[in-house]
């Protein structure tokens, strides 16, 4: 591996809460120029694709929730993290997020990939899971998920939702693309 083009000279946490840390780094580029880099650090998270194959067709379970940062509500795959550091059991996290948000329990979980979320400004790993053999139970929403609703839609409807603006979450889109490539290669 070649030398890193940016070197960290100093790093300090400027803000933190139970969900994230904001870090300000003083950096030096390979040409000697110095600057400041702001980084949002978050613990690992999972996004889950709940997929049912039925005689009537293939169906997905989505959640619909308000996202404060963009002041709008959208449909997306269940996703989240537990704020337990880097050593969290990723499959347990995925199963837990699926159960918390949708009430679903998966008989089969397949890890598809791990992606960085918005790595130009944030440091967070997002693990993509396919959940199958689903059993419905009761959701266990956290306070931050107040108003979240669960929706079962056909794959065709979901793909239409991407183009009519009901699904705009890039993590959901990346997870679906990952699944489609995995499916084609399997």
Automatic annotation (TrEMBL):
Q: Does the keyword Ribonucleoprotein apply?
A: no
The yes or no answer to whether the keyword Lipid metabolism is present is no
- Residue ranges occupied by any Nudix hydrolase domain in the UniProt entry: 41-175
Protein name per its UniProtKB record:
GDP-mannose pyrophosphatase
Q: State the family named in the UniProt similarity comment for this chain.
A: Belongs to the Nudix hydrolase family. NudK subfamily.
What processes in GO biological process is this protein linked to? nucleoside phosphate metabolic process; ribose phosphate metabolic process
Q: Which CDD domains match?
A: NUDIX_ADPRase_Ndx2
**Annotated source species:** Terriglobus roseus
Which domain of life does this protein belong to? Answer: Bacteria
Q: Which GO terms of the molecular function aspect are on file?
A: hydrolase activity
Cofactor or coenzyme needed:
Mg(2+)
Q: List the catalytic activities from the record.
A: GDP-alpha-D-mannose + H2O = alpha-D-mannose 1-phosphate + GMP + 2 H(+)
Which terms are listed as keywords in the entry? Hydrolase
